[in-house]
Amino acid sequence: MIKDYEAHLLAVYGVTEILWKNQEATIFRNLPNFPKITAEQITAGWVQWQKGTWLDAKVILPAEGEEVLVHRSGQVFQATKAQAYMGGFKERNCWGWQGTGYIDFWMKRNFRLPSELYYTKPSGEPNV
Fold first, then answer.
1. Residues 31-61, buried b or exposed e (16+ Cβ, 10 A)?
2. What is the spatial distance between Cα 56 and Cα 76, in angstroms, rounded to a whole number?
């Protein structure tokens, strides 16, 4: 499970070579041109990641293009991480895509949906 988390950190934050000590990140390298993250944020994200619970959007974000469940103002819905949209996420509505912001928490989608409910096909094209 820690390898999945480290792969996520590499994709989103460019974090490489994490040194763990007693389940806490102590030293890591951050590639240039990636958002900055602290060792405390890496450790807090790891604790949340292990529990399989909601991840704090202030601590760690999903990878670009990843479809996740998000929690905003008491509502839970499916969204896609998309930096080009206001708020950093996009959700589908009856007219197409809209930006969505003020995301408090997100969770990796850990269940399969019927194929017609996915926003994108495996090829990456829109599922309309």
1. eeeeeebeeebbbbbbebbeeeeebbbebbb
2. 14
The confidence score (pLDDT) of residue 122 equals 62
Residue whose structure tokens are 């704090």: 56
Structure tokens that stand for 109 in this block: 């989608």
CB atoms within 10 A of CB 81: 20
> Which residues of the chain carry a pLDDT beneath 70?
1, 52, 110-128
Structure tokens at 76: 């839970």
pLDDT tens profile 80-97: 888 888 778 888 777 778
**The pairing of beta strand 55-56 with beta strand 24-30:** unpaired
- Written as one letter, the residue type at 61 is L
- HEC per residue, 33-92: CCCCCCHHHHHHHHHHHHHCCCEECCCCCCCCCCEEEEEECCEEEEEEECCCCCCCEEEE
Which two tokens mark 74?
A: 């008491």
Distance (Å) of CA 24 to CA 14, 28, 30, 47 = 18, 11, 17, 9
